[in-house]
Amino acid sequence: MKNLVKITAMFMFFNLALLISAAGTNNENERKPYIVYMGELPERSGRKTMEDDHHDILSDAIGDERIARESKIYSYHRSFNGFAARLLPHEATYLSKKEGVVSVFPNTIQKLQTTRSWDFLGLSDEIGKTKRNLKVESNLIIGVLDTGIYVESPSFNDIGFGPPPPKWKGKCARAANFTGCNNKVIGAQYFNLAGSPIDLLTPVDVEGHGTHTASTAAGNSVRGANLYGLAKGTARGAVPSARVAAYKVCWSMGCQDMDMLAAFDAAIADGVDVISVSIGGPSRIYFEDSMAIGAFHAMKKGIMTVCAAGNYGPDTATVQNVAPWMFTAGATSMDRQFETDVTLGNGMRAKGISINTFSSKKHMFSLTSGTLAANSSSGGASYRNASACEEESLSKKQVKGKIVYCLGSNGQDSTISENRGAGVIMSGDDNYSDEVAFSFLIPATVVNQKDGKKIEKYINSTRVAKGTIHKSRTTNIANAPFIASFSSRGPQSISMNILKPDIAAPGLSILAAYSPLVTLTGDSTDNRFTLYNIISGTSMSTPHVAGAIAYVKSFHPAWSPSAIKSALMTTATPMKVKPMEAELATGAGQINPTKALDPGLIYEMNPGSYIRFLCKEGYNNTMIRIITGGKHLHDCSTLRARGFDGLNYPSMHIQLSQNSTKFSASFFRSVTNVGSGKSEYEAKVMPPPGVSVNVEPKKLVFERPHQKRAFKVVVKGKFGEDENQVLSGSLEWRDSSHRVRSPILICKSLYQP
Ligand SMILES: *[C@@H]1O[C@H](CO)[C@@H](O)[C@H](O)[C@H]1NC(C)=O
Ligand SMILES: *[C@@H]1O[C@H](CO)[C@@H](O)[C@H](O)[C@H]1NC(C)=O
Ligand SMILES: *[C@@H]1O[C@H](CO)[C@@H](O)[C@H](O)[C@H]1NC(C)=O
Ligand SMILES: *[C@@H]1O[C@H](CO)[C@@H](O)[C@H](O)[C@H]1NC(C)=O
Ligand SMILES: *[C@@H]1O[C@H](CO)[C@@H](O)[C@H](O)[C@H]1NC(C)=O
Ligand SMILES: *[C@@H]1O[C@H](CO)[C@@H](O)[C@H](O)[C@H]1NC(C)=O
Ligand SMILES: *[C@@H]1O[C@H](CO)[C@@H](O)[C@H](O)[C@H]1NC(C)=O
Prior knowledge:
By secondary structure, this protein is of the alpha/beta class. It has 17 helices and 38 strands. It is globular and about 85 Å long. The model is unreliable at 1-25 and 116-129 (pLDDT under 50).
């Protein structure tokens, strides 16, 4: 099924290529959108002054006031300083050297991190069983940057909700066919600065993804939610009483940097408490990356941004959204799988995986294979692979009304559907084929290769082969939770010694609200529309983490974003993993929101911590001053971050250069007591095999709450000749009722120096 994911990615890439060529990339004389990022807001700045300032800078670079006026796209002025403009390459270079400019980077297009179709429920159930703090919860606002929202969904009904919290400064856009916000969805705006010619400018979700993610974080409790009878249960966000503010930044062509930055600029100023962004793209250095910039300014205002780790696993070194001020989420399975069985005319029954809403009523259809149904006279198309049921390779006559067996699982449902087939049985390509359950246009299932062979043998053995594909049923998975194969793995390439992803949360086959303005599969030939759908991706993990943050915040409103992140990380459940991946796949482990309410100790980081960290990462004073604003003169020579990684991060990570074998690193950490008064914690080290981990002191004594205690962790060891490239261990601070756990991970770098 990995292939299907890749196909989706290829399709999106194709879209992207189209857009880029339409924008005329090859023409040096054509202006392209760039973002000119200018750091913190100037002091005592008004919108007008900033816009004038942006215009002056642009006029200077372009040398023509009229062209400058036409080229300017947008001024960011509410939460940080900068603008988007259409520039020629030399103008971009000129601007990047100007005083006050941090960076100038091209407007790239990022993608939603969904794999189209999966399901889940657990986290919300778990939260529902425990206490909640409704009064505070209903004042929390979750900002979701996504494809917009379907406000009419039962998940966003506002019965029982009072007016928006007084701190709310956001807006509800007026647009065609948009009925407006309510007291649950208190904000809905859209950002489409380039003015897409094919999308209707409205915050309404015509894709489904934004409705799904927003309801996962904060949807109402809705009983009996299901997809055509599948996965029937209660659909519920992590914080059902919280409010939602939707910022539509993704359109049919993808999600553009300049739109995402505009949404961050708005959301931070609007007063959201958490920002959830299920979008990703290749990692870039922090201040040429719209999400890292947006999340940085959110962090400075006490707002945590949760981002998707990406869907590029199981390969290592694929993680995205890696800035330490972001919370990066990988995807885990639930204990539930969707099984779609096949029965053959000879009585054989095979298990398959898919989400099949169609009921065959046990009717037996004629059964054939792509090999047997090949169109022998397809002329120019004869290079197509009929066994794999490639487009234009099959004879319509041979396919019509039949179930077709195809090699591989590349989403052949569309080809079989076009040829009026009755269904399709695909055979998995690899070891991950039994993991992701997708929805298809027609009755369909994916069987493993062994069963596939048996099915094909039966087809070959008789002229009257028959079979049926049953409606899906849910089954339990014994080894859950496990990390999803598609979930992107570390190590990361930007800050080599910060472990990413940070945490793992459910992202496989998640049931949540959907937009009935799009078909179940998103395909226009599909005629199924649904209020709830089952989809998968790190896109789905992200709002689980955002919801969990809001949940913890509803009990600890004064905690900083880093405190809440620490609480969620140090109380996460370590997961069973392949030795070669370990925490590179899971981060601290599977999120456990209720446990995070009482973490005992927290690792705090404030804006100053990140400044020191950036100094250590090589950013100079000029840069630091622009990013942080002129109010405080930051001087990197006096702001030395201590220790190996330079941050008080709740995990410890060493990424060794390729040829080194020996390593030695000192991590300086401090923890704050958030438990009840007096307590004594002891260090319990689970060292990676063959590695020495020395903690000093080994005991931390606290007399009262909010006290801080510092300690040092020295990690020493070496890699043997044929040893694994990953060494995994942990440090736990234990008192009678808490275990404050941090992973310690050492790996060899996969990046060339
Ligand atoms: C509003 O929706 C209706 C029905 O779906 C559609 O026919 C109409 O074109 C839409 N209006 C606009 C302005 O797109
Ligand atoms: C076989 O392929 C040829 C050439 O593409 C096409 O004209 C013909 O209709 C196809 N036959 C069937 C039975 O699909
Ligand atoms: C056709 O595709 C299948 C499945 O991907 C593959 O195993 C087979 O080798 C391919 N055949 C040809 C002739 O390319
Ligand atoms: C599947 O797993 C087996 C055993 O772990 C391994 O030997 C094989 O190479 C894997 N196949 C693929 C296609 O990854
Ligand atoms: C079924 O028959 C086709 C065509 O003769 C052949 O290519 C294929 O290998 C056979 N499959 C099995 C499993 O016997
Ligand atoms: C600071 O860094 C920027 C970007 O790397 C560079 O352009 C600038 O010249 C540096 N300034 C100083 C004072 O080194
Ligand atoms: C690492 O080792 C490889 C192969 O042994 C060698 O080609 C390369 O130059 C080495 N790199 C460094 C940085 O020493």
